[in-house]
Amino acid sequence: MSENPQHPNNLTPNEYQELAIDSAIHPALIKANFSHIAGTTAYDYLFISKDLPRTNTGRIASGYLKRYAHAEHGGWWVSGLDPHKNWEPMEWGRFKPTYPRIDEKGKFVKYESPPKTPNRVTYFDIPDCIWDKVAKRYGIKRYNSPLALRLRDRLHPLNFWEWVLAHPEIPIILCEGEKKAAALLSLGFVAIALPGIWNGRVGKKDFDERLHPDLLPLAQPGRKFQILFDHETKTKTRWAVFQATIRTGKAVEAAGCQCEVITLPGPEKGVDDFASARKMDADVLLTAIINDARLLDDYRRSFHISHRGLSSKYKPHVRVNVKYLSDAIKLPKSGLVVLSSDMGTGKTELMRKWRSEHPNVRFLNNGHRVNLLKNLSERLQTEMYSSLSYGDLAKVTALSITIDSLHKLNTEALEYGCVFIDGAIRCLGNHGNQSVHT
């Protein structure tokens, strides 16, 4: 097969679209880790186990050839580096067939792992441009000095994961699926792909359950692992994700590491879908979401299968089932309004529209994170408190200021027509059910 002149490693246009556009994966990561395979070559990748039944001639038994015949039609393959073999390329990987087979339950098998082989985890081969993004995000120099780099290269080329090992202060995100880990790495987060939500741990519950052996090399004392699984809406699936998260988290803590849980707001299911949909805003939004990760015990206490509103005591006056609040409601002229809604559902857009309709009303915007407040300041057309002198804070008619800096305002002398407090309440309900309390 001749190589596709437009896309690396023989990837088809549809496969490249899925990875680069639909999943927001950096082209350099795609080139280093993903490839298209087809024909009988697919068997060489999938049939790596010595335990597969074979004929006297050594040929794979006809039952397996028949079961995996669909692989000959092609698909993309991804594999990473082996932490137990000096970070050499791993033989195990995962295959996404163009035409998936149907299992005994009548469901499509979207991803194939080598049969009769224990599941592994995927440590991506990290190109320099991604390495630089990670180093910049965590404020860590890649090398101590040019001389150290030259000596290191002469004896043994420095590997990204060895560098991560040398910096246990860098948190590691565990997520379900290679595309999701690659999307996070593309933004400069360190992520490892699990083939499924249950594959970060091995063994039986309350007996010998422990962290997956592939994760142990990075499970240094005090290292922080963050679990980021999909945003689910079905009760049964949410319960499974909760159980897998708790048990994986316990295995992380048993290995002497810290564990936090990151929850996506929706409506996008996976973090790759989220990054693709939010485009230029993905970095800022995901940084805020990841910074708001909860400790494992906090996550356990906060989990509820049934839908919960803002509170059980105060019922919402209006409940809407829409993607964006700004398309469905209009704010009242006075009173206290509480919006209980997930991130990305149009709360800021609703305030932006209100600001454009009331340009002369004194407006105060409160937030708890400086970077998010700067973004809000631009969208809501306010002055940013950090760019003003102390004496000018009271003079502006529209101001964005952090909660911690409110004491700088002479509140007795100031009156505002509207005060917007961003992020006052964390909503744990399902996306699509937004609440308005007045």
Quick structural summary:
This protein is an alpha/beta fold and 438 residues long. It has 14 helices and 19 strands. Helix 8 (178-186) crosses helix 10 (271-278) and helix 10 packs across helix 11.
Structure report:
There is one protein chain. The protein has 438 residues and is of the alpha/beta class. It has three domains: 8-97, no CATH class; 128-302, Dna Topoisomerase Vi A Subunit, Chain: A, domain 2 (3-Layer(aba) Sandwich); 318-437. The chain contains 14 helices and 19 strands. The chain has helices at 13-21, 27-33, 41-46, 62-67, 128-137, 146-155, 160-165, 178-186, 235-254, 271-278, 282-291, 296-302, 347-357, 370-380, and strands spanning 34-37, 75-78, 81-82, 88-89, 94-97, 172-176, 191-194, 201-202, 210-211, 224-228, 258-262, 294-295, 318-320, 338-340, 363-367, 383-384, 398-402, 418-421, 434-437. It is elongated.
**If you average the pLDDT, what whole number results?**
85
For this structure, the CATH topology of the largest domain is Dna Topoisomerase Vi A Subunit, Chain: A, domain 2
Number of helical segments with 4 or more residues: 14
Spatial separation of the terminal alpha carbons = 64 Å
The neighbouring-strand order within the major sheet is 7-6-10-11-12
DSSP E strands, number: 19
Query: Into which percentage range does the β-strand content fall?
Result: 15-25%
Question: Class of the largest domain in CATH?
Answer: Alpha Beta
Main sheet makeup: 5 strands, mixed
Radius of gyration: 25 Å
Protein structure class: alpha/beta
Tell me what the CATH architecture of the largest domain is. 3-Layer(aba) Sandwich
The helix content, as a percent range, equals 25-40%
Low-confidence stretches: 305-310, 425-438
The figure for the number of domains is: 3
- Give the overall form: elongated
